[in-house]
Specification:
single chain, alpha+beta, Immunoglobulin-like, 3-stranded mixed β-sheet, 9 strands, elongated, transmembrane helix
C-alpha cells in the first residue's frame, strides 16, 4: 500500500502543470501527461494489481483523445500495446479469463496485421494471445468507407489509415471484426475550423460495409411549436362530403321506414280487415290487396336506406380519419 501511495504522489507531481492552470497547457503537454499516466499505471499494476487495473484502464482511455499525436509516436503506440497486455495479464492472474480475452481482443483488433511478440509475454498470456488471434482471423474482415467533402486524414484505433483528397474521393479500409475508434480531421489550411469527427464503430459481419462521411451533415431542425412567429401552421383543404349529413341521415331513415311499411303491407295481403277468416265470403266480402304496394315499398326503401347508410358511413369514417391526422399538417417557414 505504501508503494501505491508513493506512485500516486509521483504521478501528481509529474502531471502538475508548470505554469497557470490545466486549461493553459498546450495539447503537447496534455499528451505527455497522458503518456506519463500510462507509464505510472503500468508500474502500479505490477505492484498492486487490484487498484492498478482501474487506473490503467482510465489512463488508456485518456490516451484515445490524442489520435493524431499518438499515430506519429511509435514508442507510445508500443507502450500502449504493452499496457493493454499488462492489463490482460492482471485479469488473467485474478482468474477472470473472460475479461482477459476481451482485453486481448480489443488489442488485436486495433493492431490489425501488426504482430505481437508473444515470447515476451510469458506462457499463459502468450498462449491466450495466440488463441485469440486465431479466433480473430477466423472471423474475417469487414470494410469501412470514409467519404470526405474536404481533404481529410483518417485514423483508426489511433493509427494513420490514409488520407482522402476531397469531394469524389474516399478511403476503403479492411478491418477486423469488432470495435474500432475512428478519427477524421481536415488537413487543408482553409478548413482548420472544422472539428474532427470521432466515432466508435462496431463491425459484426464479414460482409458488412460501413460508410462514414466528413463533415457530418447537419441534422434537420427540430419542429418547435412555440415559435409561432417563425413557423405558421395551416390546415389542409377540408374534406368535401358526398352529401350533407342531414340528407344522408334522412335518406337512411325514410328508406328504413319504407321497408317497414312494405313489410306490413305484405303481411296483411289477402287478409280480411277485421281478422275474419278470408275463406268465409259472407263475413269477409273483401280482402286486402297490398302485395304489389308492399313489394314496391320494400324495394324502394331498401335501396334508399342502403344508399343513405353507405354515404353516411363513408363520410363519417373519412371525417374521423381526417381528425386523426390533423396533427400531420403542412407547415411553412418564414424568414
Amino acid at each position: 500500500m505504501a508503494i501505491s501511495n508513493i506512485l500516486t504522489l509521483v504521478a501528481l507531481l509529474t502531471l502538475q502543470p508548470t505554469s497557470g492552470n490545466a486549461d493553459t497547457r498546450s495539447i503537447d503537454d496534455e499528451y505527455n501527461a497522458a503518456t506519463t499516466a500510462v507509464e505510472l499505471a503500468m508500474i502500479e499494476i505490477n505492484t498492486d494489481p487490484e487498484s492498478g487495473r482501474d487506473k490503467l484502464r482510465a489512463a488508456l482511455l485518456e490516451l484515445h483523445r490524442f489520435a493524431p499525436l499518438l499515430a506519429e509516436d511509435p514508442a507510445t503506440l508500443e507502450l500502449r500495446t504493452m499496457a493493454e497486455l499488462a492489463l490482460a495479464r492482471a485479469e488473467l492472474a485474478k482468474g477472470d479469463r473472460y475479461a482477459a480475452s476481451r482485453t486481448i481482443d480489443q488489442t488485436l483488433e486495433s493492431l490489425g496485421d501488426i504482430p505481437v511478440a508473444t515470447e515476451r509475454l510469458g506462457p499463459s498470456l502468450g498462449a491466450l494471445v495466440e488463441e485469440r488471434r486465431e479466433v480473430l482471423m477466423a472471423r474475417g474482415l469487414a470494410r469501412l468507407r470514409v467519404e470526405c467533402s474536404v481533404a481529410c486524414r483518417v485514423f483508426v484505433d489511433e493509427r494513420h489509415a490514409g488520407d482522402v483528397d476531397g469531394p469524389g474521393s474516399a478511403r476503403e479500409l479492411a478491418l477486423p471484426l469488432g470495435s474500432h475508434r475512428v478519427w477524421v480531421e481536415a488537413i487543408d489550411d482553409h478548413n482548420e475550423g472544422l472539428e474532427p469527427r470521432r466515432s466508435s464503430i462496431s463491425l459484426d459481419s464479414a460482409d458488412e460495409r460501413l460508410t462514414l462521411t466528413y463533415p457530418e451533415a447537419a441534422p434537420a431542425p427540430a419542429l418547435d411549436l412555440s415559435r409561432g412567429d417563425r413557423r405558421r401552421f395551416k390546415r389542409g383543404p377540408a374534406w368535401i362530403r358526398v352529401a350533407p349529413r342531414w340528407v344522408e341521415a334522412t335518406t337512411f331513415v325514410v328508406g328504413t321506414a319504407a321497408v317497414v311499411a312494405g313489410a306490413v303491407l305484405l303481411a296483411i295481403d289477402s287478409r280480411c280487415p277485421r281478422g275474419v277468416d278470408p275463406r268465409d265470403t259472407a263475413a269477409c266480402p273483401k280482402v286486402y290487396d297490398t302485395r304489389t304496394a308492399g313489394i314496391g315499398l320494400v324495394s324502394a326503401g331498401a335501396a334508399g336506406g342502403l344508399i343513405g347508410g353507405v354515404m353516411l358511413i363513408v363520410d363519417e369514417a373519412r371525417v374521423g380519419d381526417r381528425r386523426g391526422h390533423e396533427l400531420g399538417l403542412t407547415w411553412t417557414v418564414s424568414f
